[in-house]
From TrEMBL:
Keywords: DNA-binding, Transcription, Transcription regulation
Protein name: GAF domain-containing protein
All residue ranges annotated as the HTH luxR-type domain in the record: 213-278
UniProt GO molecular function: DNA binding
Highest taxon of source: Bacteria
């Protein structure tokens, strides 16, 4: 069970790092796993040029990662070795790797920090708000994947205790495929003119999120869910409008309504909030 648990979580983390690098174009993406005494160990990475940061363990409060764990908030620096907002125990390792700008975001599941998601560049450029937003969104999606893994393991454990056979657990990449399929199915439903058939397709959409459905105190309309599904696929307002056959201003109106209902400040926060209440997979 432990080996399978590690593999499932590692798959989800690896998929998140790959997606993050593809989405942002940032060359370095890393994940630090929370270990004993609230220390962080860099356990997975993409784009590192040297072994200086590979498997490095960070003390609580030290460096960017340690600060993220101690504050439970995202942190970033544009010039690591000169930054006055962090401690500098790991300047040598950073200099050996040649990193300058770094952004780190906590990954929190069931109110517990599981790790830290990083991006970094080997040049003195400032990582803007768009990059920070993308890292945050990826962290939120990873949290969902890890939470699903925990739920599936719990269900498997109950099945084993009752004599049932446990099924194979989905990897992070497979769960992302489910999300993509859900969004595309909602878009297909939107094109169906037959009301009876459209209702059947909407029921299928609801069934796809039922395994993680929780009590939903906020009611989203079908159109609002359509817009969120498009946003979850990374569509712009114009692309969502073309997909849904409505105007871009109408998409904006739906999105503003969704954000107000969910208490979200960005479109990405709205997607994550919808997933948390079970409205999206």
């Amino acid at each position: 069970m432990d080996a399978q648990r590690i593999k499932d979580d590692d798959d989800a983390i690896r998929a998140a790092l790959t997606a993050l690098k593809t989405t942002t174009g940032i060359p370095v993406a890393m994940y630090g796993t929370l270990i004993s005494d609230n220390r962080v160990q860099i356990t997975q990475w993409i784009g590192l040029r040297t072994p200086a940061l590979q498997n490095l363990t960070l003390d609580t409060g030290a460096g960017v990662g340690g600060r993220v764990v101690s504050t439970r908030r995202a942190a970033g620096v544009s010039d690591y070795t000169r930054a006055n907002t962090i401690s500098h125990e790991y300047d040598k390792q950073i200099q050996d790797e040649g990193l300058h700008s770094i952004v780190a975001v906590p990954v929190i599941v069931n109110r517990e920090i599981k790790g830290v998601l990083y991006v970094g560049v080997h040049s003195p450029v400032r990582l803007g708000d768009k990059v920070i937003e993308e890292v945050t969104m990826t962290a939120r999606c990873l949290e969902q994947d890890l939470a699903v893994n925990i739920a599936l393991r719990s269900n498997d454990g109950e099945g084993e205790r009752s004599g049932a056979k446990s099924g194979r657990q989905m990897s992070g990449a497979e769960w992302e495929q489910v999300r993509s399929t859900h969004s595309k199915l909602r878009m297909l439903t939107n094109r169906v003119e037959d009301e009876e058939l459209r209702k059947e397709l909407e029921q299928l959409c609801e069934q796809m999120v039922s395994p993680v459905h929780v009590k939903q105190t906020t009611k989203l309309s079908a159109r609002e869910l359509d817009v969120l599904s498009c946003v979850a696929l990374g569509h712009t307002n114009v692309e969502a409008a073309a997909e849904m056959g409505i105007g871009a201003e109408t998409v904006k109106s739906y999105l503003r309504s969704v954000m107000r209902k969910l208490g979200a400040h960005t479109r990405y926060e709205a997607v994550n909030a919808a997933r948390r209440i079970g409205a999206l997979p």
